[in-house]
Amino acid sequence: MKPRLASLLDYYYESMYPTLQALEEKRLTILSSLKKAALMLVFLGTVLFFVLSRTNVFTPLHAFLLSAMSGFLIFMFIYRHERAGYDSLFKDLVIEKMIHFLDPSLIYTKMDSIDEREYERSELFSEAYDRFSGKDLVCGEIEGVKVRFCDLHVEKKVRTKNGKEEWSDIFSGLFFVADFNKTFHAKVVVLPDVAERSLGILGTWLQGVNPSRGELIKLDHVAFEKLFVVYGDDQIESRYILSHALMERIVAFHQKIDKPLYLSFVDSKLFLALHYTKPLFEPILTRSLLEFESIKAYFELLTMITNIVTEFKLNEKLWSKR
């Protein structure tokens, strides 16, 4: 039986709170240092602005922009330097402990991630990428099902209208892999149905002429069809994988999480990606660690992730092997 929120509250005060007090002092020290650095940089930036604006080289606007940008870059350097050690300690004392509280058998590696080969194997995101990074890898078995998940960030380099290069997200968020409870040979990819919702019949037509994704699979579940578009390379086996019961669970999970959801079924494994706009397990520097509400949000996130196995009933060998 999984630990409940009430038991986490007891664990928090009995086992985590004493060590978090030292970490909280470090957090307050960092905040104090950052405030002093910000005040100092504002003062130096103001001096720099007056010096530059009195020369014949810079206009007042250019002097202001140069001063502000210099101050911002220096502050960001100090900010990253100050919080680097704090982030690492936070993961040791909060995230790792919480994962072991949920399931002592799970192995957490804060600097590791699912590798590129596994990401590509999922076939969830077909765009070519230029930068691949991840962290907070968790491996192990939940309810007898092998799982791996991490916080993943995949980007590509794009050129703006002004000719500048920028990084654009292909995917950012939770990437989850688990053994599926059926053996299959076909590949099935379930994506958010953006085209049909935006363009109607034209969107449906466009979905049907997407050769890079394979054959369009139409399913007899109205709510599922409104949310997702499905591609596969075998109509019969796709329906064997996406049973009516599984589609019900996917729809319910999507409604509960309310985030862009991607799924694929490849080599008898389930790949799941949930898009988040911010890192999953990073500390919030402005929130006290001595308030249970700060810790509760991480617990709820980790509980949601580890519950995927039971939400999708991956632990139930109802259909076993064909």
Automatic annotation (TrEMBL):
Pfam families assigned to the protein according to its UniProt record, in alphabetical order: DUF3137
UniProtKB keywords: Membrane, Transmembrane, Transmembrane helix
Keyword Membrane annotated: yes
InterPro entries for this protein: DUF3137 (IPR021484)
Transmembrane residue ranges: 37-55, 61-79
Keyword Transmembrane helix: yes
Protein name, entry field: Galanin
Species in which this protein is naturally found: Sulfurospirillum halorespirans DSM 13726
